[in-house]
Amino acid sequence: MAEYPEDESSSTSFGYSNQQDKISGLRPPYKAFRCPISREIMQDPVFIESGYTFERGALVKWFEVFTKRGRQQVCPITLKELSSTSIIPNIGLRSAIEEWKETNDAIALEKAVVHLTNDGADSDVLWSMEFIVQFCKKNTYNKTLLRKKGVVTVIADMLRSTNEMVRLRVLEALRILVEENDGNKDVLAEGDIVRTVIKFLTQGTFQEKDLAVSLLYELSKANILSERIGCVDGVMIILAGIASDTESNSIAEKADQVLKNLGKCESNIMQLAEVGRIEPLFYMLLHGTPEKQSQMASHLKKLVLSNDLKLLMADKAGPTLVKMLNEGDNVAQESSLTALCQISSNEESAKMLIEDKILSPVINYLFVVGPNHLAGHRMKMKELAAICLSNLVSSGVDFTAIPINDKYSTLVSENTVEDLLHLVSNTGPAIQFKLIQVLTTLTGSESAVLPIVDAIKISGALTTLIQLIEAPRMEIRVASLKLLQNLLGHMDQELAKILCQNSGQLGSLVQVISETSLLTEEHVATIGLLGGLSQSDSSLTTQLAELGAFEIFASQVAQIRKGDISSNRYTSPALEGLVKILTRITFMLQENQKNIQLAISLNLASLFTDLLGINGSDEVLINSATALANLSTESKNLSKLPQQPAHKPNLINRLSRKQASVVTKPCPVHRGQCSAKDTFCLIECKAMEKLIQCLDNSNKNVVEAALGALCTLLEDGTDSDEAIWLLYELGGIELIFDVLIQDETKALQRKAVWAVERILRIEDMAKQAAGHASVGIALGRAFQLGDSSTREVARKALEHIKRLPVFSDIYYTTK
Fold first, then answer.
1. What is the pLDDT of residues 24-81, one digit of tens each?
2. Secondary element (H or E) of residue 54
3. Which residue in 494, 502, 528, 635 is deepest, having the highest Cβ count within 10 Å?
4. How many CB atoms lie within 10 A of CB 327?
5. Phi, psi of 74, rounded to the nearest 5 degrees
6. Is 217 within 8 Å of 258 (Cβ atoms)?
7. d(Cα 101, Cα 27) in Å, to the nearest integer?
8. How far apart (Å, rounded) are the C-alpha atoms in residues 96 and 343?
9. What's the rounded Cα separation, in Å, for the pair 390 and 439?
10. Radius of gyration of the chain, Cα coordinates, nearest whole angstrom
11. Rounded to whole angstroms, how far apart are CA atoms 39 and 35?
12. Is the distance from CB of 669 to CB of 723 less than 8 angstroms?
């Protein structure tokens, strides 16, 4: 025998020579079965011209080595040179080897079956599993043979073994057994084998999970097993979780493939969609028969979709669903519209649906009834259409330019709005609520509100809308209140008139606000409506006063500030609205003396002053400062000189007069007896300091309101000099100069210029301002760019600081 070349590698093959101690009765191989080169049992024996037989692969490698070395080919046995390297299959020997293997396979198989069926030792079972794996790999028929012998069921039962290694070998064996073998898959479909395999996904080791997923992948290729897998509770969630596990990419990829296979089974589509695997549903919805499309739409309406899925659905399935809505039967129409209601709840997906022309059929279902519609179906479709329309109008699209029919009517056309208003008055609460939401959203748009207001005026529907604030259902009351708030800027006089004509409705609004220990959306909406009504409407103010509303509102403010009413997300808007309502008392003081008495009884000056001191919203600051300005305007009229006692020449009365003069020291600004409560004096109620602080606020509306209140101390009829020195002592002068210099708005500039001119009338202040270059520049800018009134005041101010010459009056006389 010749030596092997140095770079020769040995080959291996599955045999039984090393298993004699494991399996009794195995026939030993003949010496001729072994390759002289590799010493292994031959799989493909061939012979050469020397007459010797070798394993084909080993012989080819022998020849390759000699070829690389440039040497003459020789026989591996005789080492004699060969004239030819032709190789010829040794068919006889190959048949003999195959027969020997089959005989031994049969013997080994019987032994393996015995080990498996008779609860053999774990080592015997592990050997049996290894044998079966190799046996199956030899040819596909062996898998069928094992099924006929009942081995597949026996192996499957061993999934419950307590030995982890056995379980791992069983999972591997089952995977190989079912590969491309539907019969074996049918066996595993019986009993609870599938459930046992799935259990490994949550309770098994990492290796068991890996092998279980691989087995499920093979099983899921069969429709019957795909359905069986889908019937196991929670399996979709488990597989979806594994598929999304980025730390185990190999298992994740297999789990993803299992889910894709399961999606081919129609019964699994809904469960897959519930875990975010929407593709199978998409495919069936887009490409299925009309009946299947209807079923998928019905599935879709049951899902809770994320915003991303809503966008995906609108993009991929929107046109199909709209087509079903237009052309489908009753079931398809209801299913598709229900699905569209959910998809349209996202702003961006709603825009996509509008592009797909969804508005026309939705409006049609709201207003038009076809001859084939049943009563129940008709009402259901109206309700769904109302929900869908409410979602669509929330998308922010300009509906003034989108036609809803062949007549080019739009959603805000007069006839459409009138139809909506008519339906609001003649439908059930569910549809009514959604249509009010539609109108509320549309009236919140600058481009849509005016046509709707015109339609409401023409139809006389405002009275009906106001009546809804007393509806039995709270959501309708709240929606109606919000709609009326949107109409305030266009129909506040009409709205206030109707409320005044029906004191019961106004009383109901007041009652809503009064009955609460916890603020709700309805309270805030009610407060917002009353707060938005025209503050110059004296009739409304009078009626509110007669209802005792202002006492209730003042009490509510006090309770909110003290924390007696639990704080929540409605607290801030409620406080803003209540303060604004209370402010309306101060707008009609001169016209109605009762309002002055009401303001005194409620001690409004102190209340609004206190509100300046809290860390509230800018709206509270603006309305409080505005109210203080209105109240302070009356201070000079309410302030009275103290009464001096009659002169009596005795010591006791002289002392009494002295004490009285101390007690009744007049206000330096209003020159009379003042108090926070009775004369609304800003000095007495300590409001000046807080108003001055507001001059440094970043919100210019707050600054304007605060400056307006301070300006009331500088008006004619007051001792403005004293007020100016008080401002100076409190640091207010510099802040007023800063407001002038910043020149933010025309209204603020006007007030600042007026205040500065009054301040500069005092010589010392004028001298100080003259050295302040920015003040002069700001006044010069106002003198050039302001309105006529502002320019005149700015001219006087510039004269005070010597920036303009002062000319004497020139008189012309005639001879």
1. 667 888 899 999 999 999 999 999 999 999 999 999 999 999 999 889 999 999 999 9
2. strand 53-55
3. 635
4. 12
5. -130, 160
6. yes
7. 9
8. 71
9. 9
10. 47
11. 5
12. yes
